[in-house]
Amino acid sequence: MLVQSLHREDIKAAIRKRHGSVRKFAAKKGIKYQALVDWLRDRPNAPVGKLVEAEMKRARRDGQLAGESIMLDHNSETSETHRQNAEAR
What we know:
- The chain has 89 residues and is mainly α.
- The protein has one domain (1-89).
- 56% of the residues lie in helices and 0% in strands.
- It is built from five helices and no strands.
- The protein has helices at 8-19, 22-29, 33-40, 46-61, 83-88.
- The longest helix is centred in the middle third of the chain and has 16 residues, at 46-61.
- It is globular and about 50 Å long.
């Protein structure tokens, strides 16, 4: 399944890009918002999972889904110290 290979934040971002918000997506698809939120929190719900899977396939087909999360590099050697952090030391 496509959704199993994606991070939940990538799924939410793709839904927001296409529908404006997760709540609007739920309303357009005729599902309860809380059921969608629960599914995003790894609480199984087959009908919601099928809708999200179909949505992610559409997003990937339309080129709106990168399929991977951006990993931030927090290496202290290469990044600047934030002003507030520097003052705290």
